[in-house]
From TrEMBL:
It comes from Paragemmobacter aquarius. This is Uncharacterized protein. Keywords: Plasmid.
Length: 109
């Protein structure tokens, strides 16, 4: 269920630039603490699980590329915070069906 919380958190960040700006410079432990104070029950392991799935989907399905050092997505993360990359390059461009599928796979996989 905590993967769903991470999805809810990412959606909140994508809807609210002020929230993203508040969280994006925090180290992961600080981000998780602040998010819990704001009502999001985040778990460390869920980040890798969901984000990894989103990166694989983005590279192989959306971009139609092999996963290697030449993938366009890797260049998209340069010069920005990790959270900004996750929200704007992975989460926001996906439609709701893809998001729900990836969240379900991460929770049940």
């Amino acid at each position: 269920m905590s993967v769903s919380e991470l999805a809810r958190f990412l959606e909140h960040c994508s809807d609210r630039p002020d929230v993203l700006a508040r969280y994006e410079r925090m180290a992961l432990p600080d981000l998780m603490f602040a998010a819990r104070c704001d009502g999001f029950d985040l778990r460390t392991g869920d980040f890798g699980t969901l984000i990894g799935g989103m990166e694989v989907w983005r590279i192989t399905v959306a971009d139609g590329q092999p996963i290697d050092g030449e993938s366009r997505l890797w260049r998209a993360m340069w010069g920005r915070s990790r959270l900004d990359y996750i929200v704007h390059e992975l989460w926001a461009p996906m439609d709701a069906v893809v998001r729900n599928t990836l969240v379900s796979e991460a929770e049940n996989g």
